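Retro notes
What went well: the complex prediction finally ran end to end.
Inputs used:
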Amino acid sequence: MDRTENFFPAFHQDSAKGKLHDVVNHECGRSTEIVADDLGIHHFISTINTACSSSVNAIALGSRLINHGMLDIVVAGGTDALSKFTLNGFNSLMILDKEPCRPFDATRKGLNLGEGAGFVVIVSERVLQQEKKKSLAMVAGYGNTNDAYHQTASSPEGRGSYAAMQKALAMSGLSVTDIDYINLHGTGTLNNDVSEGTAVKRFFGDQLPRMSSTKAFTGHTLGASGGIEAVFSVLAIMHQCVFPNLRFEATMPEVEIVPQQKFEQTTVNHVMSNSFGFGGNCSSIIFSKQ
Amino acid sequence: MEQLMADLKKQIIEALNLKHLKPENIGDDQPLFGDGLGLDSIDALELIVLLQQNYKVKIENPQDGPTIFHSVKSIAEYIRANQTA
Amino acid sequence: MATIFITGMGNISPQKTWGDAPLLSEVTEHNSERLACVEPDYTQWFDPRQLRRMSRVLKMGVAAGSIALKEANITVPDAIITGTGYGCLEDTGIFLTKMVENNEEALNPTPFIQSTHNTIGSLIALMLQCQGYNQTYTQGAFSFENSLLDALMMVKEEPALKVLVGGVDEITDLSHTIQKRFGIFRAQPESNLNLFTTGRGTVNGEGAAYFVLSGEKVNDNAVGVEAVATFYKADEQTLKQGLDDLLRDAKLQVSDIDFVLLGTSGNAGTDKTLLDYTLKMFPESSTGVFKHLSGEHPVASSFAFWLAARMIQEQTIPSAVMLHDTGRKPKNVLIFNQYFGTHHAFILLKSCRASG
């Protein structure tokens, strides 16, 4: 999209104009194909676009393909570049904060856009043994649901996100008290943080784990956010630490969530990472220490 | 004011693609959202664009939407109060 | 492995593939390199308030999904999986156009909201209040195959699940103009029915086809989905190996394939390669073609999937489809698709009629 929008002004003036080089990779799946070209992959390739939950779904798909014995090694994640298209789009939805964003803070006004790419390599048990390697972390569970409430907004009680966390936890065989840290979706919009906060409180009850949104550091990297936050989650396990929720000062009046406020070394065995997208797409994934 | 409300009804039908409605179907005081005309929060954002494009009236905070967009009459009153001719 | 059945289908395509008419009893001729869908009256599915924001791709997708669900006799599926190469092009084009025209000021949010590829599957979920698994694959010409594989895995995990899976893509004025500049469609307009006789390049197509898959057989005439496999920039050897693996898993021999439905597209070069492969790999099978009916597009294989399933149900191969007739009845049907020579895929379907 960042290239298509370069093509478009000239093309709009005269449909014979605009550099075709700028639109040749417009399709979502092209970045995956370029990676496949580079790695010499001729079999299974796939791209998922469920907006902001895309890359969690990609990591879950990779894990499923391995669990079904169809693949041994999968590279999965997400990438998204800043573009005027998304900037204008989120501006038209009036959910951009012109100041640095403040997820879960009472004074939050919206999100900041970011860009980036985050990928993980997932391998089967067999490959791990063959290579005599220790993994950085394990994919313990994942769940995807649809909020089916509104095209962009989340239901006030976060029914989709609640169900996604429930599915992921059920698959992992863990209980709520086992989760040491949640990497929240936490975009900083009025709607998301109340909805997600309500679902998290309902799901974890009084035993709230440490939690933070890392989007105050990265901005909302949209399709890449699940991949980038999967890497943060694995880093939390590798380095036994939790990340602060930058710029948090006051709790939201609607739901009392006090996120992690400083970087801290602590025991981290199980991390849950949430990603929710347009169209009510809700995904949650759990990484565990091996 | 009557003329402004009549214009608004036409513009709302056009902007929100409410082809099944005619301007006379919309009452001046009829609630536009919820059980009234059944508009939703995306429509509210579209109405903000409509006011900016047609009347140069800016609404900075979408949270003000529900009050301003209660009915055609409340929109007309808001335009009157905020238009800088 | 337990069989996975198709229990409902809905297809909107450049042919009249909805309604009660016998399979391809009338073939729609298009005298253009752009094959637009023969669309039903959408007001039977949606009220005006729902229709007002829906672009064509959304109407086609949601309607095809509704037809499939009705045929399967279910109201809400357990999962919705959609494949789309280009997604919602019309809304993407509108938002880009407005960005230029309005100089990035006062933009309407609706086209932006609906430009996301997962709008189609999300809208179906929203309308049905379906809170289950919802996925959208966007891997170009593998988008439908990826979706199908996901659906097959889901039903294998839980055979009682009813999964709505499909492929949707639209042509818009903007996308067609841009694609024509790449020179991938024939330059002179002529009948789609001559697609394979002149070999002067392919024609642009679009469509929406959804299917309900389940591990539970609901009627005697059910069609089973055996396997799907995709190959990216693969050579003949890789394809042959892929086919061998697929047949071994399905416990079939090459000679068991009664009919091969080919994704030839009217490009002389890539068509010859595919036909050469087919002749070598399937010397005993009947063959047929479909892209003169559907046009070429990323999810054209969803049209082929519908066609193959209908042919198996009715145990007949329409004359418009037949290329090489060996007289064999279509019991095991393999779709062998290709897209501009870089994307190849196999989908294997079989008759599950109790009488054999």
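What we learned: Chain C has two domains: 4-214, 225-351.
What to try next: split runs per interface for comparison.
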